[in-house]
Amino acid sequence: MAKRIFILAMFSRWNAALAFASYIDSNPEIARNRCVLELGAGGGLPGLVVLTDYPETVLIDNLEFNVRQNLSLDEQDRVESQGYIWGHPVDNITRALPKDASTGFHLIILSDLIFNHSQHDALLKSCDMCLASRSANDDASIAPCYRDLEFFRKAQGAGWVCEEIVTRKYPPMFPEDPGEEEVRATVHGWRMTREDVGEFPH
Question: What is the residue-wise DSSP string for 143-187?
């Protein structure tokens, strides 16, 4: 059963990715001329610049295939896919940044990741290590939470400011699953910024 779920997760087009890609399409300034990292990219639908997922060959191969299928050769040159375990050192990720970039990423995408409660601390640690500077212009954007607010309470305790920015409804991905359909059909997108802006350059 675990293998089946793993393969399904890798090749599914999740509602959270659709909602986030649509949000970026409607607000292109979020990603324009910025260094963008996606953690737990899955199929890589909303990600730009550096896509990461658990370091399993089949996952990274799928990311690279999607990049080749959906981007021009010029665009492919600006995208890198690599394996990464949350909470671990980020040297390989930051090495993928352009040479003229700052020391980190301006936008970090976490799409449909926070259901994994045991990894909340590791995920926040990775965001801290990868964010270029803790200014009001540098974001970590999260979609969705499905009313699972524990991650955001933890983030606020660590100095992040959390704001819900998107609420969209889609047909539930798995209609036969238990639970209230209204909850399972709703994608909640959040924006997180650092509170301690004074300690870092804008």
Answer: E--TT--HHHHHHHHTTEEEEEEEEEE---SSTTSSS-HHHHTEE
Say whether pLDDT at 10 is over 70: no
Per-residue pLDDT of 110-167, as tens digits, reads 877 888 889 999 999 999 898 876 554 555 555 444 456 788 889 999 888 888 888 8
Q: What is the pTM of this model?
A: 0.76
CB-based contact 187:143 (threshold 8 Å): yes
Measured distance CA(87)–CA(130) in Å, rounded = 11
Phi-psi region of 60 (alpha: psi -120 to 50; beta: other; left: phi over 0): alpha
